[in-house]
DEAD/DEAH box helicase
Amino acid sequence: MPVLDINWNKLSALSGSDLKRETFRVLQAASFAIQSTDTDDPNLLEVVPRLADLLDAHPEELLSYRPLVSSLARSTGLWNYIETEWADETDALIAEAVTAPELGGVTFHREQIKALDTLLAGRNLILSAPTSFGKSLLIDALLSTDRYRRVAVVLPTIALLDEFRRRFRDRFSEKFKLVMHQSEISTDDPTIFLGTQERLIYREDLGNLDLTVVDEFYKLDPDRRDERSITLNAAVYRLLKRSKQFFFLGPNIDTISVAPDSRWNFEFLRTRFSTVAVETLDLRAVSNKRDRLIAEVGEDRNWPALVFISSPGKANKLAIELSEKMAVSEDTSDFAVWLKSNIGQNNFLSLAVYYGFGVHHGRIPRAIAAQMVRLFNQGKLPVLLCTSTLIEGVNTAAKTVMIFDKTINRDSYDFFTYSNIKGRAGRLGQHHVGQVMVFNDIPEQTELDVSPTLFSDDDKLPDEYIVHIDKPDRSKRSDDRFRYYRDRLGLEGDELKLASSIGLETAIAIKDRVIRSLEESDILIWQNWPRWPEILEVCEVFCSQQKVGSFGAFNTRQLATLIDKLRKAEDLKSFLLRQDQSYRGQPESQDNIFKFLRACEYGLPQNFALVELFVRQSSAQADYSLFLGSIGSWFQPEILKELDEEGIPIQISQAFYVDGDTKTTLRNRLYKAILNPKGALSEFEREWLRQAL
């Protein structure tokens, strides 16, 4: 196709009659290509955003071409690029017909309308589309109708939960009640349940659902090596059993494997339709890749830039190195000062932020990570170093994506993951043409088949999933496996499901270790608040089967000490400052303390609860309930933890908390603090709260 031969940089450098002549040739070639090319061919589609970018660069010289570009946008189905004030009447009418005033004037493109037609006809849909497709807008479009009263939305990360919560709050607060936290209970009112799989799987107030939405559905495939896959499948199984309709969304999937006798019917829409163009800069031949990366990071023409790094430790190390070499912003000193005061003078984050570098990965505290993304999208933090956590959903306004590493942790990523990372470049309405810098070989392109466990043959179902299946849905083989683990562990119902989340064979080994410990002493039999030796013994039991490093500690004694210190700390701020003062390790590993705090939310409570179940099989005197009810919120009031997940750091909210507060009363107090310029909050903190609330 002639369009493929266009040198867009050369075209943009032209002016006058040369520019007009060559632009017309592009329009002509694209119009001819439409007749002989697939309607979702990326090579054809990218002409429209590139021309939009060209029009923005030469607004006066190419003014007369705007109607022609709108006509091309109409022909390709990129109706969101039709400029109604310049388009001819037919093109403008099409754009107006697919514009949703109730969603802030969003204009849909052809493939979005195709997906909506399927869903509004009441059919189940699995959608595979590129990152820039605008998949989340489809959820909003469905919610804006009057067809759905109770909706469950399953999202992979809490950061993404908060992003959806904010958007739903702004658009649907008068139409739906939003339920995101375990403390929030639904009523008969129209309700949106927002949650990760770990949260939704145990909710008892779901009722009958009209729609279940699963984002990043490829994580249902156990071959994607996601340790949360079993829980996700179990949660989705539970939701689909009570839901009239489902909608799964994900990027770049080619096929879905389904067992012949699967109970779940759906339509699969696979499209390559993208709303932005991407320009790839091949830097594989560069001899000193790290020096070149640092040089490109320092160029403001590349900002805002995401830098993909394989692991948190490497991202931290690069942030330290960059902050020692250059400054890329003067707008983040207030944030840096806040970080020093609230997480520690010695923590590398404050220095990195001071010089304009953000860091985003699974260890960073959520409210701080959300602030990083917010400042990045505002242009105040022009460079964000990230791992796969940011790639998995949080929307950013990145112009450039620099793919520096070729692995995620130690495993080489495949073409699917590469495509998802690449898809973060460009943003409709902000950066029509994104840029990707590739420093290593691009993985071989292969078709990706997704095989969700809940769609699989019974013979392929893992034991950890089987314990979540209702008895009428279990085959004889599955029922035999279920009864084996039920009898071997001596657990029923939710207790057995808890064991499955850790691993059934791991749970058996933990049970055996508990029995041996009880034969030697009664140190595992405690109530209320445990002493340090009692905490240590529990840690010894479950860490005999799991890596202690996964809980953010180097050994079990340190893990027990961290738990004990956190419980006894006056507040989270003082705990973090003491840890900062006593830290003697490598700077890039200092955020292990944040990894420990993440473990307190889920991994540690699970393991302590499982140990308690086995101890109580021998002694009913054991009662860990007070401890278990507190560790998940870092031994602070639950509402402070919930607000932290909504972007308000505990270090701020704790200063305003009064015993007996509900989230509403505390929010109101924070609102008043925002309005008081002479109060306890700094101007930076007031602005942080203003945007978070």
The first helix runs from residue 8 to 13. The mean pLDDT is 95.
